[in-house]
Amino acid sequence: METVFELQNVSYTYLEKFQALKDVNLTMTTGEQIVVVGANGSGKSTLLSILAALIYPTAGEFHAFGNSVTEEAFNSLDDNEFGRYFRKKVGVVFQNPDIQLFCSTVFDEIAFGPLQLGMPQEEAKRRTEEIMSMMDISGLRDRAPHTLSGGEKKKVCIASVLSINPDVLLLDEPTAGLDPRSQLWLVELLQDLAKAGKTIITATHDLDIIEQISTRAIVFGEDHTIKADSDCSAVMKDLELLVSANLIHKHMHRHATLMHEHLHAHDGAHHHEH
Amino acid sequence: MIPEWMKEVETGPSECCPSSVDKKKSFVEKSISGILNFFQESMISEGYTKRDGLLQSIDPRVKLVSFLVVIFAVSLTRDVEIIFVVYLLTLLLAYLSKIEISFFIKRVWVFVPIFAGIIVLPIIFNVFMPGDNLVTLATLGNGTHLGPLPLPSTIYITKQGTISAVTFILRVATCVSIAVLLVLTTKRDVFFKSLRSLRVPKVYVLTLDMCYRYVFLLMDAVRDFYTAKKSRTIKTLPMGEEQKWVAGRIGYVLLKSLDTSERVHKAMISRGFDGDVKLMHDYVMQKRDYATIVAVSAFSVILVLVSQNIIVT
Question: What is the interface pTM, i.e. ipTM, of the complex?
């Protein structure tokens, strides 16, 4: 399998003060389904932004598709074949749909990516229609993004990225704010994309979907370092690890494969009943 | 876990007073609800763009260019009767485009008297523009001054001034009606894209489009601030405090909009944006569009020729 991303001792510091990532070493290969898990502020979204070449490491090296990714290399896509290749290969679904949906209609939103990457108008139009039909959102064609529900917005976000047909998909908290039915739809879509051979990297703290959408889990601790990088089932069984990464409450635990949650009280002596 | 004071719960019947009704709204509430109503109305008026009417069926580029030509011709026309005929035509177009006439008239005449009326009001008096007496307002006698300004012995409304004022107001109303017709019958995104036919640079078209999209998002944020404040307001704050709060929120909205613009830019970059935006253009000119542009251009030329007395009616 080919290496997609390689990070060597990567660190990232915001405003030269706030560390978001510390000494990250990772290799990701084609066709992998990976989740990046961690508590709020652990660095998941920062890692995704680096993988998407939207920000650049303040220390260490980042390689994508065998090329070094630096700010200079991405300054202009016009003079940069690799930049254009990268944008075609890597699609990002942001956590906040209102950031991602910047066009005035759903149709324009989905057609935006293909047009920017130089696809002829007619082909971009055809592809947009196909994606809308696949995602069952043809009825939203001329709707303005601010008039859509949360689930519809998420569908349009994903459609706007899939219209580029990227081989690598980066998703930041994709289930945030979705109702159970939309979550299930999303999980099934990611499973289908995985079967098709796409590389899917998802940042989340939704433990319920991890084993359904990925085979490998990278756990970030609150000190912004990688605490574990292993297969999903091993990570999910390691309760101590999950507690130390602030991913589960110490009173939430598993019985075999079932997640068990029970009532408990903190008034006076702690007690609970199974 | 919770402190002792939080464990106190008031039980029993409430000893509170009857609720008082104060119909007066604070200036903050009035301003915010006014702005929100404006946006709500603009969303509702988008419904007209979907109706199966005459103007909705015309190519947006043709509509934009045609309406600009007519506005230009009307602004050159001096004859009040001709302007009135054009105004009546806008009403007919509104009717054929399935826009309620009462809504259309209200939409135009709410603003025209405020802006055009105030500007033009002085010229109807002989104090500012001499002319024939139409209605006498006051007889002051000779040698009256208003400060250093000498006043005429009689103050009256002039015939010429009134005709000029009516012509001006009607001209403004007709031009506003044409602009309102364009806006009501054209989808916003299509309208912005049609600006490309006037060679407006793509980046401005995209910026306009995005401004329109994000102004709703920021308005939602403003509404949420206000609702959150209202939910925790126990007594009315003094005007100064309210103004401080508004100033603080304005600053916050500015920061939020800057942060949003940075994130949106990243989202655009991630989908291949490189500074040279490419927009979808899928308009095809039909026979009726060509006919429209020819007819409107001919009408505008005749309008100008008649008003300049080159063609005598």
Answer: 0.78
